[in-house]
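Forum: Protein Structure Q&A
Topic: Joint prediction for protein chains with partners

I've read a bunch of threads here and the consensus seems to be that you should model interacting components together rather than docking separate models afterwards. I'd like to see that in practice. Below is the full input, 454 residues plus whatever partners are listed. Could one of the regulars post the assembled result?
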Amino acid sequence: MKLHTPIDKNKLKNLNAGEEIYISGTIYTARDSAHKLLLQMINNNEKLPFELNGAVIYYAGPSPTKPGEIVGSIGPTTSYRMDKYTPDILKEGAAILIGKGSRNEEVKISLLENGAIYCAALGGAGALMASKVKSSSLVAFSELGPEAIYKLEVEDFPVIVVNDLKGNDIYECH
Amino acid sequence: MKRISFNNIVNSIKDSVIEINCVASKELLNKYDTGIMRENNELSKKVLINLKQNAIIAKEKMIPICQDTGTAVLFLEIGTEVVIDGGFIYDAIYEGVKLGYQEGYLRKSIVDNPLSRNNTGNNLPPIIHTKLVEGDTLSIVLLAKGAGSENMSAIKMMAPSEGINGIEKFVLETVKNAGSNPCPPITVGVGIGSNFEGVALLAKKALVKEFFEIPEDPNITKIEKDLKEKLNLLNIGPQGFGGKTSVFDVAILMEPCHIASLPVAVNINCHVIRHKKLVF
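Posted by a regular:
Agreed with the consensus. Here's the joint model:
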């Protein structure tokens, strides 16, 4: 299944946990510290550095870009550390979250309530994931170094659905 | 006396830090292959094929296998007849780690303070464990240790009466709870004995057990083998999607302990095994 950004949430309804999807278009990186700052901005009603409605958020902090490359290694980081912030991010309309590892019950409920899905990229496969990135630019929080928000243009970025909109979880399916 | 130059240590550490992060060892590639052969589940097989492909791309481009290029952890064994010419050995290690992470385009993942959390920008400080030994050899075992798996590690001060069954139960629980988080297939380092701080160090050292001259104990080998089998029946599988390859290896190190204690520590390593031994 191929999906293009911005994501039409209607297209997520029929996806199944364990299914591979290929995302093309724009995705944004955000991990621990970036989430903390985004939440502060949401709470203060400030304008966010990118549109969260329909967004794809990738929990990742790349290694530095080598000369001649588009981006450094860029695999997913473990997602549960973002659980605390995720329901608020989902309320803002984020459609697909990408990381690795399982989420808590609150996040799973919030995904269903907001019609969003959580997917896993391959952990420890940063070089492979980098090969799917066609351009990369810094969007916000440059002071955070690898934890800054990057805008990535990706083509057929491969992820596996973990939590679908039928309430299934691939980590619990076996 | 053997004289080892400060710059020799700096350069060796620098080169090794880059090498272990970008070039997968033959052993790791073989582990992926064995897993690919064993898995029947299509998704799990495909995951392992992709992990191997990732390692091949990383080597071709000399970019990190994983973006979390880790904390540099070093076990030093310094012969009492070794003299470092041109500076202090810890300074050489700091310099080597700093240069390696800079010149190798490796991620700087260390914050200066666990609460205020500002990135130090050079991946310093490393974590160094030093042991004095007889002789004129300096050996350094270097690991790049990622945090996703480190976070899933655990320690327990058990009652001696819990014995081997209690230990196995604790290891199984720890790995089960870790699930998909530490990027399986994992390597499980188990420390048994010593004391509170000692057992954690034993578990870390167990991850690189092959680099230390530890006499083989058939009882330990059997426990390692049994645990590996039991862990692989948990059906966590590569990346947690199910399958037979949840762990690549289990390695145990034991030390004497107090009559009232049975300390046990479980240190988990992700599938990307990144370590090397340097001998001067």
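Residues 2-23+63-145 of chain B form one domain.
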